[in-house]
Amino acid sequence: MAAVSSSSSQIHSSAANLDAINDLKREIRQHEVAIEELNNLASSRSVYVKKGNIFFRTSTEKATTSVKRQLDAAKKKMQNHSTKTRFLDTEPLSTIAHAISYSNRASLLRAFHEQNGYHSSSLSMNGCQGDPNIPVQTIETRSLLPVLTPELASDSLYSAISNLKSNPPPSSSGIIRIEVPIEQEIEAIEWLQSQQPAGPHQQKLPRFFFSGRRTSNGPDFFIDYSNGNINGSPTTPLSPDLISVAGIGAAVYFRHFRPFSFNDWRSIKRFLSRSCPLIRAYGAIRFDAKADISPEWEPFGSFYFVVPQVEFDELQGKSLLAANIAWDDALSQPWLVAIDSLQSTLEQVSFVISSADEQVPKTSVRGNILNIPDEKHWDGAVKRALQIIRSSSSALTKVVIARSSRIFTTCDIDPLAWLACLQVEGDNAYQFLLQPPDAAAFIGNTPEQLFHRRKLNICSEALAGTRARCGSRALDHRTEVDLLSSPKDDLEFVIVRDCIRKKLEALVVDPQKAIRKLPRVQHLYAHLKGQLKSEDDEFDILSSLHPSPAVCGFPVEDARCLIAEIEKFDRGMYAGPIGWFGGEEAEFAVGIRSALVNQGLGAFIYAGTGIVEGSNPSSEWEELELKIMQFSKLLRLDVPFLDTVS
């Protein structure tokens, strides 16, 4: 923020005075938002304060007192200026902080942190604030000797970090990963379940979980196009034995309320390297960044990615415990602040890991289940979509309409317990959890891949049409034949497949229609593969594939506008990309079959269906019920299922 003089002699015109007033209003807003943020921290929490080029730790009380003094001074300056111009905005100062949206509050808070150097010891730097054109100076992975247990791994990690603190790198920016192999296979989700917060509503550290798709047919193979030979050997995965990853804390995070941009992607990539394939940024992107953000999705912004401070990797036959340290003097997170924050996070990590109980008790429903839309309004929405599809003046051929089901429960739902249950049905699907600090957890069990890139090789897939799995093999086969021969489902599938094939703009191999069977449902499916001209095309592929016709419709922009008109809830990250970026590999799934879960919140469960010519409202409603069954089976309904819509 530009410095503002309190001397009226420096204001030579009403226009200049107005500029000074606007600067002061922004300063007041920043101070009030900072006070609000500090008040939300525990009294024992410390923050980092910057004076000059020196960082030191102080209590939240002292930091709040300091900010209040600055706020009072800014208000006095405002009062002095307010008598000097007739152009003054007469909005009462007391309403300023409450009149701005969450996204403005968040950006103002970030601006305040950048200006005054306040950093919660549980938070890290926002990498989106850095220069995307300047790579960090140091990126490296240091592997320690293998050990037998997580406890020994933690001792080894502590020792390595202490030595590193005594011998800091000379660079002003960078990221270092320290990893300790553990000679036993431990499930990453069990490790994450052991990291429960000490008390209720104390989830101050971000956490995540991501499990790649495990199929009975083995891993997805990539065709080697390097010599123009489509019959070449499959490429070797960079980390072929990595099963799942869990993490807590943020060495660096990336979040903003604007749409995810090329510069945001480059800001993430500046912390990644081909030589360190397991340094990854995990996260998600909103389905529609143009839509208003509802309160339950506010902490996620338009996108949210994180490189974890402490990470646990589950591999075939072994495990890895790792720590990531990221620093950047230009982002007011120097080396000592970063490593001190890591040590603070490690102090909260438990290395006593107990096996997860896959049989989670069912949750009682306290009251109504709020469906938006309810079945009556759903009928109207589908008929409205079909009317537009049939109109000669419309290019729309498909639109995906979704439903939000809010569950009110008598007790807190543990998102990790739900996720463990979803893993039981996880064959041929991705499982994920993404939870910013003090926020709800976005969890899911999605079968749909958006894309997977290894070096220049890329694959994607088309998924559309749904039928239930059946009890007997003969009946299941008849259902499969019905799905393959259905004109309505074939139309929906062809729209998705051909759109993806066109967007890849590369050699496509075997995009034939097939069936993908999951534990509860089966879908029409095609696998598409190709080759990028440059690894920098990764952002373009992500931007062009999302949103796909499978979760939005076709043409995409026409469908998105209709969804914005019809749907009366915020999809948030539902149906958006969720996954990770690495140095020369990236993988994203589509965040369907998902829910937003938190203590005191209950859960929002999301599902959608594709509407094309031939769709029937009641059949599509039944498909919604089928798709949320993996969540609804965890609930014991103590009251009738009541549909309500606001």
SSE inventory with pairings:
Elements: H1 14-40, E1 46-51, E2 54-59, H2 60-82, H3 102-116, E3 119-120, E4 125-126, E5 138-143, H4 150-166, E6 173-182, H5 188-193, E7 207-211, E8 242-248, E9 252-256, H6 262-269, E10 281-285, E11 303-307, E12 310-315, E13 318-328, H7 335-346, E14 363-372, H8 375-390, E15 398-409, H9 415-424, E16 430-435, E17 441-446, E18 449-454, E19 457-468, H10 473-485, H11 487-504, E20 514-517, E21 521-531, H12 538-545, E22 553-554, H13 556-566, E23 577-581, E24 585-590, E25 594-598, E26 602-611, H14 617-627, H15 629-632, E27 635-636
Parallel strand pairs: 4-9, 5-6, 14-27
Antiparallel strand pairs: 1-2, 1-3, 6-13, 7-8, 7-16, 8-12, 9-11, 10-11, 10-23, 12-13, 14-15, 15-22, 15-26, 16-17, 17-25, 18-19, 18-24, 19-21, 20-21, 23-24, 25-26
Helix pairs in contact: 1-2, 1-3
